[in-house]
C-alpha cells in the first residue's frame, strides 16, 4: 500500500486513499522511484506479475536492472530529472528471466512521504513496436528511394535511400510538401503532382515512368518512378512514390550496345570467313567475307547445315568435330574445301570453337575459315621454283662429278690411239679409262638410289637395332684405321620396323662414314636408341668439328658437300634422307661447331603401324 501522503484535510485523505487503491488495483505495472538514486520506493502487484521480481527484490534494486544494459545510462538524465508536466518514451525492458520486451512508460513527479518522487506507469507495446520495426526495416531495405505522401502531398515518411540521395536528414522533411523536398523543375516538367493526385483519386497505380534530370554542373541522371496507392479499409489516403536511379544501368546498356555494334563491324570487316551455328550445326550468321568467297548471301543459307556446304570428300574432320560438339572444349582445326554458288570449291583452313552462354552451357559453334586459294597458288610457285633450283644444282653436281672421270678417260683414250706409246703406258691409260668409267657408274648408281631407293625391293618386318649393329660391324675396320671408337648403347630387345634391311643398313653406313670423315684425327661415335609408343629413334653422335649454322640446313641437298675434291659426291646424306622418307620416317641433325653432331633417324614401329591401319 502507498504510505500516507500526510494531508491533514479529510478530502485530501480520501483522494490519497483513492490514488492508493488505483495504484494497487491497476492492471498496468506501476512503481514509484527516487529520481536521485533511481531506487524503487513502491511497486504494484501488476509490476510484480509482469516483471517476475518479488516486491522485496524490486525494493532492493534500481531502475538500471529492468533496462537493457546501455539503455539505462542513456536515460539517466531523463530519469533523474522528470519533466514537470510528465514525459513518455518507449524503451526495451528486461524481465527477471531475461526476456526483453518493448515498454511504453509515462512518468510524472509526485510527492511521496513528503519527498519529491516520480510515478511511472508502463504498458507492454512489443507487438505494435515489432510491427513498426519490421515496417521500418522493410522501408530501409528497399533499394529504391521511397516517399509516403498524404492527401495533401505532404511527406509522412522517407526511407534512408531517399534521404541519402537528396542529401537531407530524417525529421527535416516530415510534413513538408513534395515540392519542398523534390526538385520543382522535375515536378513541373513531368506533371508528377497531378499524377499523384490521379492515383489517389482513381486508386490505380502508375508504373515505370522514365525521368531524365540534369542539374547545373552535374552529369545527366536517368530515373524510373512508380506511384502506388495505399488503401486502408477501402479508402485511399496515402501514396507511395518509388524512384530508382538507373543512370549506370543505362550507361552500361549503351556501352553494351556500342560493343555489340563494334563486334558486328569487326566480324563483317574481317577478311576471314566467320560463321556461327547452333548446337546442331545449322548456320545462324555468315559474314561478308563468306558471301564474297562462296557467292551465297546469308538469307540463302540461314538454317542450312554447315556440313552440307563442305566438300564431302574432305568433310570428315568437320563432321566429327560438329557431331562430338567439341566435347573436350578445345578448338578444332582442319582443312576442307568450301562449295561455291557457281559449282566450284575453294580450299579453306578451318578453326572451330564452342559458343557458350552465361551459364557456360554450349549453345553453338563459331567457325572461322581462311581462304587458301592464293596461298596454294603461291606455294605452287615456290615449289616450282624450288624444283627448278634443285634441278639446276643437281645438273651442276652431275656435270661436275662426271666431267672429271670422263676427262681422265678421254685423255687416256686419246693416248691409246697413238701408235708410238709403250705397252706399259698403254696399260696405264687403259686402267685410267676403266677407273673413270667405274666412277661414273658409281655416281649414276647413287643417283638411281636417290631417285627410287625401293623400287624393286619389298618391305618386311625387320629388327632395326640388329641392322644398325650389322652396319657398325661393316665399318669397324675402317674405324680402327682412323682411330675412331665405336660405342653401342643399344638394348638387346628387338624393335621391329617395316622396311628393306639393305637400304636401312646403307643409311647407317653412310652416317657412320660421314661421322668418321668429320674426325680425321680420331674421336668417338656413340650409337643409342629411344622408344616411344609409336616410333623408334636411333641417334648417331660424333665428337667431330661440327656443322656451321649456315650449312646445316643444306646437308641433305643433293651434291652439297664440304669434303675436299674427290673425297665425296654429296649424295650420301641425300640418299639417307630419301630412304628414310620412303620408310615413312624422318631424319634430322643438330650440331655445334667444335663439339660434334648428332643425327636422329625416326621410324614407325611395326606393331604400332598395324594398330593404326584398321
Characterization of this structure:
41% of the residues lie in helices and 27% in strands. It contains 20 helices and 22 strands. The strands form 5 sheets. It has a 5-stranded antiparallel sheet with strand order 2-1-5-4-3, with helices on both faces. A hairpin with a 4-residue loop joins strand 11 (273-278) and strand 12 (283-286). Helix 15 (423-451) runs parallel beside helix 19 (572-582). The longest helix has 45 residues, at 373-417. The chain is elongated.
Structural class: alpha+beta
* Number of discrete helical segments: 20
How many distinct beta strands?
22
Number of domains: 5
According to CATH, the homologous superfamily of the largest domain is Histidine kinase-like ATPase, C-terminal domain
Terminus-to-terminus distance: 111 Å
Please, what is the average pLDDT?
79
CATH topology of the largest domain: Heat Shock Protein 90
How much is the radius of gyration in Å? 53 Å
Shape: elongated
Unreliable residue stretches:
1-8, 608-614
The CATH top-level class label of the largest domain: Alpha Beta
Hey, roughly how much beta strand do the residues contain? Answer: 25-35%
CATH architecture of the largest domain: 2-Layer Sandwich
Largest pleated sheet: 5 strands, antiparallel
